[in-house]
Design goal:
The protein has 387 residues and is of the alpha/beta class. Helices cover 16% and strands 44% of the residues. The protein is built from five helices and 27 strands. The strands form two sheets. The chain has a 25-stranded mixed sheet that branches. A hairpin with a 2-residue loop joins strand 24 and strand 25 (310-315). It is globular.
């Protein structure tokens, strides 16, 4: 407006034939044109960078998210709709699928390093294929919403709001972070290749996997959770689990200030450390192979028995059995939390660092190549708990 008033003033002066006005008019016109071009550029940038799509009428849907690159955030809301905020090139599709209601074995493909990494660390270091069993999808027709990248050059961020009663959420990010908060509806599969997976305030059944990047779970209650990473740390803090299996190849594992319901609880690393701190009665079984050791630090009543590389510890009156194994690192057993614990021996610092900074630090150097082969899925989870 100021620029326009200035132009009108110059035009009125110019009618008198003033030489100064004639000299200033081209400059002012250029200024106005520059301002208009800049304003239009900002409008165009906003319209190209983000697009909002909402799929209404989705009751307890299945949601599949597949993003090549860019950070992805998944949240829940109390609406029968799926909302997608991201690059306009994203494809958002809705269709109906007939569900049997029976147990479904979801195939998880092998996760292996690319050729240049395999040449340095050995191609035997990989996460083998496995299956993950879920039973949270009721029988009958089910809305399926599929969100996926179509433009290889498009980058995030992408935000997806899913109904709180979504029965199944599958989210895969190629290169970027994946953050899921507040989902309790059913089964979640969360995977990245390069990037962190963060799980907050979750419930139900979860499978989480990274190639390079930490898996961080906080303040969640899981019926079943499976977490595995090739070159990333895995941390659980203030969680309650009924069945859990966490494995890494070159990352460390920390389960801090958590509790266990009766069921499977198994933690294993090839070349990382494993640190388990339970709140409540529990029975530990730990084994450190190679150059590693089993360290214990308890503040409450405990009975510890260590012999022949095996350590067992009964905390309080005993309880759920928790096993922790490292083939190339050390195992740390304690009660409660490592945060604000006071003075700890120096050998405990790697466990503290992993808890406080799960996305930083390096696992011990890889040793002679050996393929990590976990038990089949039905041996890992001998029964599927349903509420």
């Amino acid at each position: 407006m100021k620029a326009e008033r200035r132009v009108r003033m110059l035009r009125s002066v110019d009618k008198t034939g003033t030489w100064a006005a004639r000299q200033m008019r081209p400059a002012v016109a250029g200024l106005v044109r520059a301002c208009l071009v800049t304003a239009l550029a900002f409008v165009a940038l906003g319209s190209v960078a983000r697009a909002d799509t909402q799929v209404d009428g989705t009751v307890a849907p299945i949601v599949r998210i597949n993003i090549r690159q860019g950070d992805v955030t998944v949240r829940t809301w109390d609406r029968d709709a799926v909302s997608v905020l991201g690059d306009p090139s994203l494809s958002v599709d809705k269709h109906t699928s007939q569900q049997s209601g029976q147990l479904v074995s979801i195939p998880i493909p092998e996760l292996a390093p690319p050729a240049n990494v395999a040449a340095r660390v050995g191609d035997a270091f990989s996460l083998p294929p496995e299956t993950f069993v879920t039973s949270t999808v009721p029988p009958g027709p089910r809305d399926v919403v599929v969100i996926k990248s179509t433009d290889p050059a498009a980058r995030g961020p992408v935000t997806v709001l899913v109904p709180s009663d979504a029965v199944f959420v599958f989210a895969h990010v190629g290169n970027g972070k994946l953050d899921v908060d507040g989902y309790h509806g059913g089964t979640l599969i969360a995977m990245t290749r390069i990037g962190a997976v963060t799980l907050s305030n979750l419930g139900g059944t979860v499978f989480a996997q990274t190639f390079r990047g930490p898996i961080v779970a906080r303040a969640s209650t899981f019926d079943r959770v499976r977490a595995r990473s090739l070159f990333g740390n895995v941390t659980f803090e203030r969680c309650n689990v009924r069945q859990i299996e966490a494995t890494t190849v070159a990352g460390s594992i920390v389960y801090d200030r958590g509790s266990f319901a009766p069921g499977l609880a198994r933690f294993e690393s090839i070349d990382g450390n494993v640190a388990i701190g339970a709140s409540g009665n529990v029975q530990y079984g730990a084994h450190a192979m190679g150059d590693g050791r089993v360290y214990t630090n308890f503040t409450g009543r405990v009975s510890v028995d260590a012999r022949n590389g095996q350590t067992s510890a009964i905390v309080g009156d005993g309880g759920p059995v928790v096993t922790a194994t490292s083939q190339g690192g050390s195992v740390f057993l304690y009660d409660g939390t490592l945060r604000n614990r006071g003075q700890l021996p120096p050998e405990w610092q790697p466990a503290v660092d992993t808890l406080q900074r799960p996305g930083t630090g390096q696992a011990p150097a890889l040793r002679a190549p050996q393929r990590f082969v976990p038990p089949p899925a039905f041996r890992r989870f001998t029964h599927v708990h349903e509420r």
